[in-house]
Amino acid sequence: xxxxxxxxxxxxxxxxxxxxxxxxxxxxxxxxxxxxxxxxxxxxxxxxxxxxxxxxxxxxxxxxxxxxxxxxxxxxxxxxxxxxxxxxxxxxxxxxxxxxxxxxxxxxxxxxxxxxxxxxxxxxxxxxxxxxxxxxxxxxxxxxxxxxxxxxxxxx
Length: 156
Prior knowledge:
By secondary structure, the protein is mainly beta. Helices cover 15% and strands 50% of the residues. The chain has one helix spanning 2-24, and strands at residues 41-48, 51-52, 57-66, 72-79, 86-94, 99-100, 104-112, 117-126, 130-140, 147-155.
């Protein structure tokens, strides 16, 4: 009977430890902020040109930069809710390989060096008038410390 209780206690302890790890994530995924308090990974967005006409060509560039003194696993994405108003003609990446899901284009780099950046470049043709709002997220992978950048494309 004592052996059964000990085995049950060990199983329960193992389950609790696994649950804590699943909730908290791997310890190595958390990166400290730099001495100036900047986020570990920050994102930027440029849209060129930011105003165009139907049929106009536009380049959208998202960048994630590692602001820490150590190598991190980083994630970068461009959310584009108005993707139906655009025809994406090319998607490329620097220091990562983007995946294009139309509404979301994202990539990751498991070895983003200190001070290094990765980018996603999207070339598109505007096919409908209106306002297209883009959001970029950048973060240390498997964390929720996202930084965001926003941009608007106006098509007339």
